[in-house]
Every structure is written in structure tokens, then in C-alpha cells.
Amino acid sequence: MSFAKPGAGSPVALDPRLLAELWTSLASLLRSYTAAHGLHSNREATVELTEEKITVRHGKKWLCLDRNHAILTWTRENGSMGTLELTESGTLRSGAQEEAMDLAAEQWARDLMLKSSQLESHGSE
């Protein structure tokens, strides 16, 4: 069974059922990774999921992902934002670069859950 269907304006329009599964998987990955990053310090994040939005909150930090078909727009509490495309293979594409959905979710979770001083020491290793 193939989930890809030809569509206007893009090389491949993804089946809505596949998009829904990938979207739910992304929310699940964010839940798992935020929980893992909060274990050592007893911190928790909330992850809210709707058909078109995932919001992750931890303290004053938050990440909002809005979905329009396969296009995701992410926004952070500091005003930074970007656009990604969710691909049939479960990667997130930005221009010519692709990243596995789980790696992107882990990076977002790490940034949300670790304190600024922890991020700086992580980056210097």
C-alpha cells in the first residue's frame, strides 16, 4: 500500500492518514524526550496535541508547531520561527536539508528542558 498521491503544486501530496500518523508520532516523540530530559531534575513539560497544532511548554519556555498539510511552522517563546516539510519517510525537510523526526524532537526537547547554563556546558563538550 502506498500513501503517496500525486498532487498539484508539490511533487508528492501525502495521504492525510499518513500525515496524521506522522503528526501523532512527532507529539509522542516530544513527550518522550521531554520526559527523559526532565528525569534527573524532576521537571515535566506539557505536550498538547490537536490535528493542526502541537504545543510543548516547560516553565517560561515553549514550542508551538502548526501544521498545514505537510508544512510545519515552528515558533519559540523568543520569537524565533521556521518552516519545515514533513516527508513520507518521517523526516523534516528545510530546503535541501533533511533531519530524522526523532532527532529534531530530541533537540527541541533538550532545548526546552535544560537550563541555559546546562545548554552552554553541553555545547562546550
Question: How would you describe the overall organization of this protein?
Answer:
The protein is of the alpha+beta class. The chain has one domain: Metal Transport, Frataxin, Chain A (2-Layer Sandwich). The chain contains 3 helices and 9 strands. α1 (16-38) packs parallel to α2. It is globular. It starts with a strand and ends with a helix.
Please specify the SSE layout and strand pairing.
Elements: E1 4-7, E2 10-14, H1 16-38, E3 46-49, E4 53-58, E5 61-68, E6 71-76, E7 81-86, E8 91-94, E9 97-100, H2 101-113, H3 116-123
Antiparallel strand pairs: 1-2, 3-4, 4-5, 5-6, 6-7, 7-8, 8-9
Précis, in short:
The protein is an alpha+beta fold and 125 residues long. The chain has a single domain (13-116), classed as Metal Transport, Frataxin, Chain A (2-Layer Sandwich).
Task: Give structural attributes.
alpha+beta, 9 strands, disordered N terminus, 3 helices, Metal Transport, Frataxin, Chain A, 7-stranded antiparallel beta sheet
Structural class: alpha+beta
The separation of the N and C termini measures 45 Å
Number of separate structural domains: 1
Low-confidence stretches: 1-11, 116-125
